[in-house]
Write a structure and sequence with these properties.
Chain lengths: 372, 372
């Protein structure tokens, strides 16, 4: 394929793959797509190592990085330490988690670990400085308008800046702020998402920004036919995340992979229980415990909820992997409704090739309907 | 277009239009699509008149009817009168509505009207008997597995039976029950809907039923490019409803039309506040009053909630049309997220022609992406 976005990004197929796993990023890029490393959870040193490894693997082929710098969060501008932020987590939340664990036959931690407050300080800027020393071809912000330093770094270094949006109003705002690529992500997406479905959001965003910049479709896309449907609607390509979680290369917890393979599209929920903002993930006893409409507990604002949740969920994953039934009932991870179509573990490279074939078949199918 | 479904249903373009308005049904059929009259709210005599009128207009061109025969509802099998069913509406619900109206400067009814329990008895069967005396080419059930008498009537009269589904498990069940056409409707749809988005549901349903019967895509589709996207994914065509509500022909309350033209895709909500089952509609003070997660009131089961709600909502519509601010804040109607793309009142015929043009342009766009 030689569409404008393929030319611009130097790729064969406009399939963008977001992953926290460097192996997935390299495999997708080497297969003709565009890998994007989720870098938010790394220290600057570790990110540098990851990117150097990718550089060795892809030998000049294009890839990008994605960090999360939310526009609003608890403690913004106060320059707090992780410790000081953790002190803002009310004691009854720690008690609630201890009780939830006890109900699932899991011992509470003696001293509950509260996690680190990633990106709440200048961490995002430091990660970006590391990234631009590598030959990255895209920098993305996964939540809200990118910070000014990202827009500036993109312009200074000639690297396009992408941003994820879940509503047309946000897309218009992002374009005004100088973003070069819009990822319009529907409510069926894994992770942070809005309320509008991909099928409605894509034409709405494209109309709203009047072709100012290309739009990638995201949310629920795990096959080439869905990607083709979005390109028919005017998208320049697809941005994907969930589909890589069940690849050979992914570092997804083994028990969670099993859950994903068994899940239907109705086994996910848009919940604030992991980060404090609505994010789609597997339904589990964990997400049930944070349901707003039943006996569930209210969640804390970003980043306090993830500081509270992440260390516990990692402990739960380890227990679930070792066969602990209570932990298996609690275990969850970010994934979109497309999980219903993810039924087999395969190499990331094969996923790309199947996307291409399925895309071409879909284009044939639509073409035949107007030719006949 | 001469796709298999066009041949089978005798149409030029596989756009199915559900409407309560006979004028829309006739206009769509006459423009080369397939009109489907929502017949559930008619008496047998009135339905007969409506269908005779359509027969005169379409002169043998194909159209169908849609009724709602839920598989489960309050009082099923008890052979209750509307009066007896109405007696099951608790008094505190009447008080709640009176208070909600009072908060919006609307006088309560002296004797609250409770509405009729449409289709709770043998009304569905009677409507169907009337319908098959007309040259209908499709009978559809909008909620759950069609009753046995519908399947039998379809076979006896050689009329295909369609059913709407919101999950792949339901599609498999419907096919087993002998349904000839599946309408797979995503969560972005107006009216009753499930939780899975159209973009995920379509490939999931098609895979699950293994091409046993054709699948129409529904949910959020108000443009030809979205329809084309769904055909690229394997759908045989589109089933639409919301887009007809803002046509010249529609009988939508004028104030509600204004609300729809101004609405974005984020101005709808999946609420049980109108029928007792989750149905997407415009957000309003009415839907806020029935939110499960805040100070809202729990809703009654089908058909009690609609018996309670419909007469009041019709009064509200009339007041809203005459400029009453409280009623305007309460007014709502079923509509999908596609409402964000519905920005102009136009003739139904023009909507069909715009769909065709937009569909062809989308097919060109996708075709170009693989040719280049």
């Amino acid at each position: 394929m030689k569409t404008p976005i393929c030319e611009q990004y130097g790729i064969d197929f406009p399939l963008f793959a977001f992953s926290h796993c460097r192996d997935v990023v390299a495999a997708v890029t080497n297969a003709g797509g565009f890998g994007v490393l989720g870098g938010a959870a790394y220290t600057p040193e570790l990110l540098d190592q990851q990117l150097s490894w990718i550089d060795d693997q892809v030998k000049g082929k294009p890839y990008g990085i994605d960090i999360i710098v939310p526009a609003k969060f608890e403690g913004k501008g106060e320059n707090l330490s992780g410790r000081q932020l953790a002190d803002r987590i009310p004691d009854d939340y720690k008690t609630f988690i201890a009780e939830l664990l006890a109900q699932h036959d899991i011992e509470p931690d003696e001293t509950p670990r509260m996690g680190s407050a990633m990106l709440a300080g200048s961490a995002g800027e430091q990660l970006l400085e590391v990234a631009v020393a590598h030959p990255i071809k895209l920098m993305a912000n996964a939540l809200g308008v990118p910070p000014d330093y990202m827009i500036k770094s993109g312009k200074d270094n000639g690297i396009p800046v992408a941003a994820l949006v879940g509503a047309k109003e946000h897309a218009v705002k992002q374009v005004t702020h100088g973003v070069d690529l819009i990822v319009a992500q529907g409510t069926e997406a894994g992770g942070h998402c809005g309320e509008v479905s991909t099928l409605v959001l894509i034409p709405e965003v494209i109309e709203a920004i009047d072709n100012a910049v290309p739009v990638l479709a995201a949310g629920g896309i795990v096959t080439g036919r869905q990607m083709a449907g979005c390109v028919a609607m005017g998208a320049a390509g697809a941005w994907t995340g969930s589909v890589w979680l069940t690849t050979d290369e992914a570092e997804t917890a083994p028990h969670t992979v099993k859950k994903m393979l068994a899940a239907t599209s109705r086994d996910t929920i848009r919940s604030t229980g992991r980060t404090g903002k609505p994010a789609r993930q597997l339904v589990s006893d964990w997400t049930d415990a944070w349901r707003p409409n039943e006996s569930g507990h209210a969640t804390l604002p970003l980043p306090l909820q993830s500081m509270l949740a992440e260390p516990t969920l990692r402990r739960i994953d380890n227990l679930a992997n070792s066969g602990h039934p209570g932990a298996q009932a609690l275990a969850t991870y970010f994934v979109g409704q497309g999980v219903g179509l993810m039924n087999k573990v395969k190499p990331a490279r094969d996923v790309v090739f199947e996307f291409v074939q399925d895309y071409i078949a879909a284009a044939e199918r639509l073409g035949a309907s107007v030719r006949d």
